[in-house]
Amino acid sequence: MGKETLISVLSPEVKRQKLAPDEPPPDFPGPPDTFSFEPTSAGLAKRLDTLENKTIYLVDIGFGGGYSFMLEVQKWFADHMPSVKTIPRRKPGFVFSDDNNELWDEIKENGDGVVLGVAG
Predict the structure, then answer these.
(1) Is there a contact between 91 and 63 (Cβ–Cβ < 8 Å)?
(2) Among residues 20, 68, 81, 104, which one has the fewest Cβ atoms lying within 10 Å of its Cβ?
(3) Residues near 11 by Cβ (< 8 Å), separated by ≥ 6?
(4) 31: in domain
């Protein structure tokens, strides 16, 4: 029995099938009545009028260089906006997920804003 190479899977030439808005893609795992194209969203927090006298968390999410970058942001605030209290933190857990909500709960309780950073 020989191996079969599926070149078309990687080819940009493959034509995409257009689906009706309520039609699940082929081989969708689950009954069609549970499939939905309805987008969901969460709104952003209301923008602060000023950063003066606020507490801003500088959160590194775990990519290489992120924490060092946040320390540079902290130095910038110290030099240019000394009334802003900055708290650098590393997000717990794996870079793409959280192990717990402790950091987010701390920020909600004690912070006025967040700079969430990615570096690399």
Answers:
(1) no
(2) 20
(3) none
(4) no
